[in-house]
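lol so apparently i was supposed to do this last week
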Amino acid sequence: MMNGNENRIQELEEALRAAEEANRAKSRFLSSMSHDIRTPMNAIAGMTAIALSHIDEKARVQDCLQKIQTASSHLMSLVNDVLDMSRIDSGRLALNEEQFDLADLVHDVAVIVRPQAREKGQEFRLEIGRVRQELLLGDPLRLRQILVNIISNAVKYTPEGGIVRISFSQRVEPERVWLDFVCEDNGIGMSGDFLLRIFQPFERVRTAQVSRIEGTGLGMSIVKNLVDQMKGTISVESREGEGSRFTVALPFPAAARETRTAFLPGRTVLVAEARDAGQTEECLREIGLEPVRLAAGLEAVAWLTEARCEGRMPCAMLLGQSLADMPVLDAARHVRQLAGREFPILLASEEDWASMEYQATRAGVSAFVPCPIFPSRLYSALSQLLAGEQETAGDLSGQEEDYSAFRALLVEDNELNQEIAIELLGMTGVQVETAGDGAQALEKFSASPEGWFNLIFMDVQMPVMDGYEATRRIRALPRRDAKRIWIVAMTANAFIEDVRLSQEAGMDEHISKPVDLKRLKDTLRRLLPQERDGAQTGEELP
Ligand code: ADP
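anyway here it is w/ adenosine-5'-diphosphate bound
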């Protein structure tokens, strides 16, 4: 009896301690939150005031606007974290399930984190192992959130000049595909004691070094919750002063099998790359091509000269990130001179194509593949070149589509948001008409000739008539285009409940606010027909 009581008392004491600790963590969180919110808010308010008082000095205003942009995106991510946390707390965080492309996702993540590492002069290595299934079924936004959180931390908690190494690989099982992700750094590390608490909300290492680094202590807890919901695993190994290693394994149900048309067998590709190119060579073999690898530019030129004399030119050349003896673009120039105008020269790089396009095309590069190289990217670049289409590299990396033949109805009650959306849509060429609420939208659509609008961007929360109701009424109109017109919901947050509600109301797509140009273009590309040609030769692979 005595024993039972003692146990009970012990349990209660533990519960009390846990509650007190949670309380302390919450107060710490509130005080750091108010600091974290104030900092970017001060920047936004201050910079706005400076810009207003120097409105005629273009460079100054531009500088202010850039700082405002940085501060507001930081604020946005903070708000998102807090919202996620409260959704997790109340068990309302649901995952989407949609088909997505792993290559896109990994490249997106790289675009976000690579500049952070570069700013700190860190060596940032992103490698992929064997990837057999690029199309996966799951929640790409949440997956991206997991990856960006872990990698950003590695960059954040590793001093200048350190190393951050990321790798992705896959294990294919009959029913599912496992994505294995490892992120290693040689940064400040964590004590064994802290590792026990790292996934608890609001927890941060309590040292002067860490407190100087911006953070709320919510990221890891969100990550852990997301990984659990995805039925995956996450583990951390770390040593103070030496570094950390995060390992995540996530299962995805196998999506549609990928089929590609094989290239004609026996064709070679010359790979010029000083670094390890094993994965690139494997990618080439996977799509039916035979790689020949050389590490230096001069070697490549000599090899090509000989091959040309002997009539065994490769079908293309793949220039890697660095050569043993010269800058890669110099090598491109030599090869272009030697091999003539038509010879396909592909450049693989982790740099942003837009920043090098001009130089690279002038040096003779015909197409671009982003690093790390995924088989599908290499395949599509090569098949376009080898099909003899006169596509330039710019075409592959997203030629500016022209949507001026299309007309959209923008339904949005907030004037500022309306202005932003009109500006962004204007950049894509789409013609825009506006409506201030659902009722006006219904009226405008009903009064328009059939086929006048190609799509509707529909805000959800609006006075008079909300977006769901307006969509239902438009869909019910007795005219042919009422069922067919694309209706894209624009909401502040694409929670799965919102997605479900908007689908039930008859909307086709979701775009979350703040709307950005890339998302908008992606949506237009998906919905609006463009003349694109992807003719390939050869036979179907199983
Ligand atoms: P924060 O917003 O503070 O970065 P997180 O929840 O993302 O919060 O991480 C919690 C804490 O874990 C961090 O404050 C930091 O002390 C520690 N931490 C996370 N990742 C690393 C890492 N790669 N190296 C060292 N410490 C880390």
